[in-house]
């Protein structure tokens, strides 16, 4: 006896690499365990438009390596209202769908939370590059985004060494500095500016001066967008070290694209399968995550209302190693 | 008071991506904590040749992104004898070196074990692409090797779809199927042959037949070298499905090269720093690893004498999702 | 007045990167100039099966970046007979198709030649990674294949430097050494073995010895498959320099895959458009190519019966620069 | 008898990928032909500082694959004065250097021109990503820069498809739209804005509207920096199509970095060798280039005073194929 018989899957919010691998895992696990499975196109907007279609094994063939999401994504104001949510639940019921897997970020989770209160069993999967969801160590897409940043900095390094300049790289992360932190550690950035840690631009400039004095041929500053803009940082640095001519690179949406890393594909595959199994076991209104290597579920309410703690230990390590 | 004052670092055995990031972390952490630090060129052979030189902050500048190892590696039969080991310990003592970080695999660990019994404090770091070291979830280089395999399979996929053929990919892993397992899950391989799981080539052929019958346009078989050769698998498949014309690709040493992934650089950075701190705290004869996200030390004896368990759950997931 | 009104396009022989870009260019140029355009699935086999379908602007959307060929490819013995060729011409006539663009290698060109004699206007586009077609400086896919080889050698370099070993890399090219030549020049290979130039393995070994004596830390030998097998070269080298432990890498079919380079996409786009314009102008039984930067047509007979000359100047340059 | 006996090589202006391959070719060809060869660090500034050192075969080992320039580059106001130029020529004479290869762009060429008038035989090599040097079809670094842009657009494509948005990509090129043109053709951009072709933003917006109306799921606009800023284009598009939410990506200095493509390495190798041979033959005050596949020299005066013509045919092809 399974707690659900027909489930649907949608992607919502900003897309992230690995969403397709998660969709594939949801579909194939569901079929493996004898469920029927449907796709919903364009997130909650598609749900309200009844843009719902049956999926089989071949629907998710050859997508594990693709960036973006074949189910597409869109914003939906209507679904933020109680009327919209009731309409959505009704449409699912009309299709005989009793379980829903939502892949996305915070806003997507809140939608799942509402639907669960209206009788649909729901599971949330953390699909966002920002790693800004609590009760999971990693979100789907984060490792790929970090890889893209590190690859871009590799390229900047060549030209920095040739000109002995410094580089300021603005990366994604409005409320969470994890992309900046992990990419900064991996690329040996001297300075990492994140929303979670206060900083003084004067100290940043001072540190740069000292690094050059100690023979560092180039200097990398990574700024999470939530901690400031690359241009502003450059202006400040220029004031106190006019000869450094810092170059600003804003990486933008390329951080969201590209084929997912093996890490993200495997994380997405494990989480997609796990969500299906938890629905079958009767759980609902839960966010799936990975904590210290173990797959776990947590109440969506708790996830949505908890700020993810920042890894100060890693931050200090990054600074210690980039002397 | 620190338990060591002067430490050295060497890389030994087959090289792996991220070894340089580990060397950088050892050197910079050691300097940060007030130690003197030396590099030993070409592993234990270099030790016996007194190929030892002081390292400073700049010695490890601009290497975090490089594959291979700037300290180079070599095999050394002499160091496998008690005389060689005593000579090595004496050379270290002559240099005033009381601590040693060894980055490598099983054989490298055994050398560290011997030296510790001769009065040198030692720490082992898992540097090998094969992920075949116990008491650590990941070795340094493993994530990069998996990425290279997955990237190669992405390329094979294009041409397989065009010709509707199947592909057999032989990857590294003599005693441990982890590269095959993780790359297989990430690339949606239909069949994953590893040394840890018995298999019948007849069943493999049968599964391929069924996949084609169910509309799969191409079929990927990954074979860890320890489980068989790609060519042998191809011959068997050809016998029972003469029309499939499987193509064999042996990925070889490209799996060891290339810039390390962000994951490997960060793992190496954390482990390198950790090894230094543990030496300072007085630990010795230990292997450093990461288990469920936490850095840990384990007695080298225990590590060397324990076979790493195979993740059957992940293996079954890979098969479940590649229907 | 255009000489053709309805044209078709097919890909044949081994696939190569950029074939999709060529198909896209053929379709969109044809539509732009007011023609109707059809796709034929699976090469000449698909033609004989009447696997023919109309294509519009959207049929070729989002394919310019994909490796392989969306039209797929297959071998077809039946089409090598006069009966098969007449059947093919008849099927085209039954569909009202008066022009055909064939993308492929030598065998594909011969098919086009036969069809032109049966009243179908034909154009051949050089789609093969081997660069083994005469009257064109570059074939579609060649630049990408060379890039893949160079990228693989970059990875091998890391590990060679770490171990001070030599590497033997076997690449594609049965009758034409161009992949070996261009990848060898680009990666600084010390030895390049191609079918067009006789060589002695003794001299190869001797050269390697000298290189090591002069301080080269690693040595790369590239072998085109038409010039010998990597394994055989390794055995010879081992005989005279037993300590070098050469490592053999056979790159295989990954050379055919992956997203095409910008160079190949643009070459394919230009040639696809050119072929359509030449059909409209009334030309037939021609192979399109690029010679010294200019797009040209040449009689297929002449192309098929001329061996491509080898660029000895470039070969000597490669050796001169890899001392 | 060679016209020069001791030559030097420097890189100047903005760095570009492939400069190292060119330096390697200059050094190794010079040695091969029996010349002595020197490197000058940091361009003309280094010359004035007598930062000159002898180079041998090993000085350029293992650099062919590196981005940037091992000789570094810097701006130098002093060398723009007659006094500076005389000082530079004198320093070269003092070292017994009678020939100089300068790798860089327009400004670098002008320096070579001045030195040649002061008795030093000079050759210029086109080292710049912008392809803005006349009398050569390609500059060293251009192919790599285009590849980086195309790779970035590949990533943007994923996320654009998921959200059905349009993307505006600003690329390098102040006076020359070639990066925009070649990357635009290769990535199927609907709109390509270059300094050489006037455009109206209204028409651009109109074209976008039509594309969406005809079913294009995403739309790419490439803007060369010399033709306008990505942000300004976005504002205009937003005015007439408020629902498209175009996303702007400014690629910046990552276009200058990364390992050079095989194409750039081979172009650089050929040109470096060619420059040395021309110096030996007694030519001076010339820029080396490649025109229709042939290596050529042209008077520097002529190169510096001629604006490179824009390839309108390719531009029209790009638009024709991106309907």
Give helix and strand order of chain A, one letter per element, not per position.
EHEHEHEHEHEHEHEHEHEEHH
- Put simply, the count of helices of chain A is 11
Give the overall average pLDDT of chain A. Answer: 94
User: How many discrete domains of chain A?
Assistant: 2
Ends distance of chain A? 59 Å
What is the top-level CATH class of the largest domain in chain A? Alpha Beta
Strand order of the largest sheet of chain A: 3-2-1-4-5-10-11
What is the makeup of the main sheet of chain A? 7 strands, mixed
InterPro entries (chains A, B, C, D): ATP_PFK (IPR022953), ATP_PFK_prok-type (IPR012003), PFKA_ATP_prok (IPR012828), Phosphofructokinase_CS (IPR015912), Phosphofructokinase_dom (IPR000023), PKF_sf (IPR035966)
Subunit structure (chains A, B, C, D): Homotetramer.
Binding site for ADP (chains A, B, C, D): 24-28, 157, 188-190, 216-218
Active site (chains A, B, C, D): 130 (proton acceptor)
